[in-house]
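Purpose: get a first structural picture of the assembly so the mutagenesis plan has something to point at.
Setup: two entries, given in the order below. No constraints added.
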Amino acid sequence: MLPFVGRRALTAIPTLFIVTLMVFAIQRSLPGDPALILAGEQQDPEVIAFIRERYRLDDPVPVQYLAWLGQLARGDLGRSLRTNERVLDLIGSKLPVTIELAVLSMLVALVIALPIGVLAAVRRGTAVDYGGTVLALTGLSVPNFWLGIMLILLVSVRLGWLPASGYVPLSEGVWENLRRMIMPAFVLGTGLAAVLMRQLRSSMLGVLRQDYVRTARAKGLRGAAVNVRHAARNALIPVVTILGLQLGALLSGAVLTEQVFTIPGFGKLVVDAVFNRDYAVVQGVVLVTATGYILINLLVDVAYAVLDPRIGAR
Amino acid sequence: MSVGAIPAAAAGASDAPALRPVGRPLRRLLRRPPAVVGALVVLAFVAVAALAPWLAPYDPAKPDFLAVRQAPSAAYPLGTDEIGRDVLSRTLFGARASLIAGVISVAIAVGVGVPLGLLSGYYRGALDELIMRVTDAVLSFPFLILAIALAAALGPSLTNAMIAIGIATTPTFVRLTRAQVLAVGAEDYVQAARALGASDARIIARHVFPNSFAPLLVQATLTIAQAVIAESALSFLGLGVQPPTPSWGGMLNTAKNFLVQAPWMAVFPGLSIFLTVLAFNLFGDGLRDALDPRDE
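Result (structure tokens, whole complex):
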């Protein structure tokens, strides 16, 4: 178990290293003088000289890269060219909004996918199964930003039930916050639900063929008890991994969802930064998301090894 | 298997020995109604994209300030947009950007990913380790964030959107090809070819690649579906096709500002994305089932 965790952690290190190299390469591939780009609209010679020195732009490229890595190691992601705020602070202030959206949409996805995925496998070949397949395929094929627009049209414009956009922090009222988050969470959750539904159905079909399920039935347990307590609990293990791997897709979806519903999160931050040519912010967001993705999947794999001792033994 | 149900073309193909590997999967594919519907819808969209100049009733880029935000009518079947352009004509022309982006970005991903996967799986060792770590690194960037970073660096355009989507989807093909090579490489016939003195290039070209082809074709089809959504997402954010060139994502970007006054602007471009993606997914799923010999 421990050697497995160690080996798994060791593969994360070169990946993280390559991520920093790629982010550095993208930044350096910007056309023009990096000092002028980083200075943004303040084309003051003093500012440019300061940037040139700070990022060691007169040194050879490998030295520049190492200097930048050193700053990263100290948690210094630079400052926004627009507002001069520290990029790390900026990300820190937007991240909770996106995390709330992501958590809510995972809940939505699980509420939709768990019962349908399990039922589709248990009642394989029936109308429930076909209905689930059609639903999953629709969820995979519908662009979530369009689904969001259509929901706004129906629920907000036509029916007037929920506000179309905006954000109220949790601290200013749970109800007001949820009223604005429920539609975005639903929109973001449907795509994930489709993926989970398919995964759960196929892993549930695998588990239902196992001997221990047959044993449970043979000793007289009723259908529902076997399906839930014996089969579904085991079928859920691979679903945990899928949740980790889908995190990137969830973040991509959040960028679009935040744009549609005007939610001031992480995704809105990076899109606005691109249009403001605020490269320091773009770079910081890219770096933080990639690092987060690697670390969370490392945790998922470790959790998986804890849940299923056979993995660690391999 | 009922022979009577086999369409003439497919049955004819299976008579010719050279075409036998294609004949059986094709027949199996034609027996799956969802896959056939998917293929027909894809073909219909391809036809629309190719024939857009002849099908479109109006110039898709020409504003008409006397016909701004008109609801669907006989003159404008899908209505007009905020500067009086015909939504039907723009939707028809929009098929071009989506299909071109879907196909070209996947061609980039296949063109880069398959050779890397072949090298990685066939030669193993340090090269394999390096390619896999770079693949992991690319996978760790959420696709849209990577595309946004590239668009910021390269500038927003359809070409750069396709490059970004191509790069982001390459790891799938590297990993899939590598896994196929590892599986095929262990087979007896590959060992036999090697024992007979066949060169690496010959083994890869004659044995490994042809046996990896089916899963790659399925993956490519399903990835086109994702790439079509991805292009429309980037255009929706303003990082793909630039106005006034019509694109479904770009049309939705404008439409979201006129939901109260002109809801029809938002319905049809989105529906077109949905149908195109659904069609590629149906076709890809059908292809996977048809090419999987275990189903026999």
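Chain A touches chain B through 52 residues (CB under 8 Å).
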